Amino acid sequence: MKTLLKILLATVLFATLSIKAQQDKNPNVILITLDGVRWQDVFTGIDTKLLNSSYTQDKDLLTEKFVGTSIEENRTLLMPFFWNTIANHGQLYGNRNKNSTVNLTNKMMFSYPGYNEILTGSADDENIDSNDKIYNKNVTLLELANTTEAYKGKVAGFGSWDVFPFIINDKRSGVPVNAGYMDATGDLNKREKFLNEIQRQAPVIWESVRLDVFTHQYAKEYMKKNHPKLVYISYGETDDFAHDGHFDFYTKSLHNTDALIADLWNYVQTDSFYKDNTYFIITTDHGRGEGIEEGSKWTSHGIDVAGAEQTWLAILGPDVTSTGEASNNQLYTNQIAPTVLKTLNMKIDSNKMPANSIDFKRP
């Protein structure tokens, strides 16, 4: 009898492990946004007009670090992971100098509407016309994934901006969100306890936006511990430094964010759960102005700022066709959510989300 019971228990355990292994074969997606980063910075490198403007305090330092002999060298100096890894093994969209365009469909052209469009696949200008902390009535891709058998309880969001619990609607969706100066909660490891201790000991530059290094480390520790299959990470420093008119800090922050993404990619390649089954989809919530004149100020974005509707997109992963820098194409930000869901092998309900996904995989 005991032998039979052991066999039955072993059979159940094997079946459970087999189901888990089968579920874990479902793809993983890390969706990443860099707040208010212009396509010009990604595709042409440091802006020499702004470098030589009153927005720059230490021109010599920026020149030494980020100015080379060509546009190609400049952009690689500024964002080496994008141009040494993504450009060689993935896809990059949005270089308008090559007639590759990515545009917002919302008319607001600032953060909450932009993130709503990225995460839901639709603009909602009627209901989302401010950055106020109002719970999003729209259902995000995170929430949709969290209702499926394959991804339920395996979705998480991390952001530097404290509005993300409202954008993702953590109360309704059940998706855990750590944003702003929120501490990690639950059964914490030593590093998470340490992050909770020091995140306000570092300089608090903006009360609503923490430094990106903390968002990054909270996300990475959560991934190591819980292995979520769909993770959203929003880095925020770039937009706030730009609003403050600090081109030095904006440029250094963009360079640092590129390094944070590289660090996360390198981690993914060493973790058996994520390795060879994880996609990075990277974009921004809006563009911003090009120069120093009113109506096109680099510090600004929104409906009255030329260029604020212009965005970009990068994709990297195991089955991504290595086409590098795209040309002669038109994409829209509202295509990102259905693209993520398609990558997760989720059926898209056209009543909840347009099914205009981007085809980036190998034939």
Automatic annotation (TrEMBL):
The keyword Transmembrane helix does not apply. Residues 1-21 form the signal peptide. Keywords: Signal. GO terms for molecular function: catalytic activity; metal ion binding. The keyword Signal applies. InterPro entries: Alkaline_phosphatase_core_sf (IPR017850), Metalloenzyme (IPR006124). Residues 218-347 form the Metalloenzyme domain. It holds the Pfam family Metalloenzyme. This is Phosphoglycerate mutase. It comes from Maribacter arcticus. The lineage of its organism: Bacteria, Pseudomonadati, Bacteroidota, Flavobacteriia, Flavobacteriales.
